[in-house]
Amino acid sequence: MDVSFLLDGLNDKQREAVAAPQSSMLVLAGAGSGKTRVLTHRIAWLLQVENQSPYSILAVTFTNKAAAEMRERVEKIVGHNTGRMWIGTFHGLAHRLLRTHWQDAGLPQSFQIMDSDDQQRLLKRILKSMNLDEKQYPPRLVAGYINGKKDQGLRPAHIDAGPFPMEQKLLELYRIYQDSCDRAGLVDFAEILLRAHELWLNKPHLLAHYQDRFRHILVDEFQDTNAIQYAWIRVLAGNTANVMIVGDDDQSIYGWRGAQIENLHRFLQDFPGAKTIRLEQNYRSTGNILKASNELIANNPDRMGKELWTEDKDGEPISLYCAFNEMDEARFIVGRISDWQDKGGMLGECAILYRSNAQSRVLEEALLHKGMPYRIYGGLRFFERQEIKDAMGYLRLISNRDDDAAFERVVNTPARGIGERTLDILRSTARKEQLTLWQTSLRLLEEKVLSGRAANAVKGFLDLIVQLRSDTDELPLYRVADHVIQHSGLKAMYEAEKGENAQARVENLEELVTAARSFEMPEELEDMGELNAFLSHAALEAGEGQADAHTDAVQLMTLHSAKGLEFPMVFMAGVEEGIFPSKLALEEGDRLEEERRLCYVGMTRAMQKLYITYAESRRIYGREDYARPSRFIREIPPEYVEEIRLKAQVSAPLVANRFAHAQQTFNDSGLKIGGRVRHFKFGEGTVTNYEGSGPQARVQVQFDDFGSKWLVVSYAKLESL
Ligand code: ATP
Ligand code: MG
User: Fold this and answer.
1) Does residue 614 contact residue 322 with C-beta atoms inside 8 Å?
2) Which ligand is nearest to the CA of 605?
3) Is the dihedral of CA 423, 429, 434, 435 positive or negative?
4) Residue 707 — left, alpha, or beta (φ > 0 → left; ψ -120 to 50 → alpha)?
5) The organism sits in which domain of life (predicted)?
6) Which residues belong to the active site?
7) DSSP string of 513-573?
8) Residues 6 or more apart from 139 whose CB is under 8 A from it?
């Protein structure tokens, strides 16, 4: 059989890996060097040339989407269905195993998976029942302890807490938590992996069966495996399977979740026969993007060391845009995408990457404003997020007490002792009497129908809404939002939950205040009042829904979700100290390197064009910050970068209007675009832009020695030259 087509489109090193004799292998290579492609072709090779059955193959990828794509690509190459091949994420595969062998795993058939929010809620209940103070034992910390132990393969019985009271308490909590999970048939994420591992250890006949079956194990993005994931593979592989792992130590970005780069070294020890193949040619990015990324990551110590080169031309330089604020940044990005489209490009070829979820809101707004379809990959749109809907629920009730949907949503969020039974009474009475839930509550209280405790709880809720309303009556919209988030208990509730998700939720709530602050009242809605106009604005934004899979749409995602993907045009937004690297990473020194790897991941997603943007001032999480550009920008040598100067024409019409107005004032000041000026501290420079009027008029100057700065004209005492 002619199998050359399996090796077409591969370089020598890639061929060596794809066509290697059956054995274990490590493919260690930088971004865009074809690791994933090699893995896919290797599977096809095993099927086609080595006549291996799909039944004998197990492949692990990082996301379900990647798994689906890989299967599709293999099927395209081999031309037939590969249904019997196991391909998925670690969690997906382990879950499949538990579903098939639930009895052997000691689980009820109908076991349910808990996400990290569920997990922390359960822990809170347990803490309460034990009379333990959440402040002393934050649920986040307890969950972190439990998950950490599970990731190391440890059950309570394996742990010796020693003489330390805190450690002993945590261990006790682990035990009690696990008992309640087992009773309720609940399984958390870490448990899925741990049980799957224990299945191997405790049921030798099952292990033997799967060892016999999976002769070929292939793992993509290996640098982000944690201890239990590695152990699972290690045991399954035994002494006979051929394990091919591909990875890049420079792209390890989940250390905060327990991923261990050391697994790469461990693999080489555990599989002494494994050959290491390095790929060094990059096929994804232009020369400039690649060289800049190489230089950036060179700032990290202790790398396994790889150099990437490309045959591709240098291409365009990386464009760096210093925005005036976050809205200007968003408008700039949308403007560039629009240009791309005008030149015949597709929206789906453009990706906007950001460090934290809350950053998406301003970008979404600018996209919606322009009528540009977009899709948030691996997440929800801002106004569809749970915590935002909670906060909007309160705002809606303040505005209209008879809004039953809002009532249902927040009546017991945060928990205030209004149980399902009370709600059922409310609902059925409301139905019978044709009243709203609010009216029904009032009536039932009046008629003293509810039990003492329930009545108190319901009354407390009604009072809260009335109080919120009167407290915020005279306030501007953003302070209403802020007040409600604080005093409804929502913020405290999410703060207490802690954890990754809860942290993002608090940030989103704070971001809602920013959204309210920058909300511009459409003229035609003036009669309906600011709060109502804002509520309908939010409902409409949420209602538009994600662009469906077939619509050409801009891709928005966090840098973490972008791993393994590639796009012709990439924007990295909000590249500022405190955002990226994040505040947390700056506070904990050892996380800076991981942030730098994340930056490397982001940059190397770009094929043709990379934009990096930052803002001089930014309202985010409800505050205004004046941040410095990220150190990562400075780490990119200037020869690969072109700074985009703000010109009046660059900005969208919104700015242009203000600009026309500002013209006079600006002229009054005697400054003009292109004119030379001197500043007492920054020395000489050239005026590049201005905005605002009167005492707020600001001017941007490109200083010869200090770079570009925005200055308030009335303070800056600029001297025209
Ligand atoms: P990452 O580290 O980001 O996951 P990767 O090493 O997995 O990257 P791939 O995604 O497999 O890299 O490949 C990057 C791009 O280069 C893809 O578009 C792929 O199709 C292309 N490519 C890989 N090898 C070759 C080759 N030999 N000739 C042409 N194109 C190639
Ligand atoms: Mg890849």
Assistant:
1) yes
2) 1
3) negative
4) left
5) Bacteria
6) 35-36, 220-221, 251, 605
7) HHHHHT----GGGGGG-HHHHHHHHHHHHHHT-PPPTTS--EEEEETGGGTT--EEEEEE-
8) 120, 123, 124, 127, 496, 497, 498, 499
pLDDT of the residue at 436: 86
Structure tokens at 24: 């274990």
d(CA 43, CA 77): 10
Nearest to 490 by CA among 395, 402, 619, 401: 395
CATH number of 384-539: 1.10.486.10
Q: Which atom of ligand 1 is nearest to the CA of 31?
A: 2
pLDDT of residue 521: 74
Name the token pair of 455.
Answer: 């009545």
Give residues (CB < 6 A) around ligand 1. 9-11, 14, 29, 31-37, 248, 251, 283-284, 564, 566, 604
Output the residue whose Cα is nearest ligand 1's atom 9: 34
Strand 707-712 relative to strand 698-703, pairing: antiparallel
CB atoms within 5 A of ion ligand 2 belong to 35-36, 564
pLDDT tens for 687-711 read: 877 766 665 567 788 888 777 777 7
pTM score, whole prediction: 0.77
Hey, what amino acid is at 202? N
Q: Please identify every stretch of the chain with a pLDDT value under 50, giving residue numbers as ranges.
A: 647-665, 667
Among protein residues, the one whose CA lies closest to atom 28 of ligand 1: 9
Question: 264: burial class by Cβ within 10 Å (0-12, 13-18, 19+)?
Answer: buried
What is the three-class DSSP state of 581?
coil
Contact 396, 480 (CB under 8 A): no
One fold for 297-381+546-644 and 384-539: no
Please tell me the distance between residue 541's alpha carbon and the centre of ligand 2 in angstroms: 34
Q: Specify the CATH number of the domain 652-720.
A: 2.40.10
Contacts of 331 (CB under 8 A, 6+ apart): 366, 651, 652, 654, 655
Is 259 annotated for ligand binding? no
ipTM (interface predicted TM): 0.99
| Residue 232 amino acid letter | W
Domains of the chain: which residue ranges?
Answer: 4-97+194-281, 112-184, 297-381+546-644, 384-539, 652-720
**CATH number for the domain running over 112-184:** 1.10.10.160
6 residue type, one letter: L
- Token representation of residue 66: 């990647």
Query: pLDDT by residue (tens digit) across 502-556?
Result: 888 998 999 999 889 888 776 656 666 788 888 877 776 665 555 666 789 999 9
What pLDDT is attached to residue 63? Answer: 81
Provide the CATH number for the domain formed by 297-381+546-644 in this structure.
3.40.50.300
What whole-number distance in Å separates Cα of residue 76 and Cα of residue 471? 64
Q: Which helix (H) or strand (E) holds 247?
A: strand 242-247
Which helix (H) or strand (E) segment is 644 a member of? strand 641-644
Q: Choose which CATH entry (3.30.479.30, 3.65.10.20, 3.40.50.300, 3.40.50.620) describes domain 4-97+194-281.
A: 3.40.50.300
Q: What contacts 70, CB < 8 A, 6 or more positions away? A: 36, 39, 40, 43, 59, 61, 87, 220
Is the dihedral angle over the CA atoms 81, 85, 91, 96 positive or is it negative? positive
Q: Which ligand is nearest to the CA of 31?
A: 1
Which is the closest atom of ligand 1 to the Cα of 39? 11
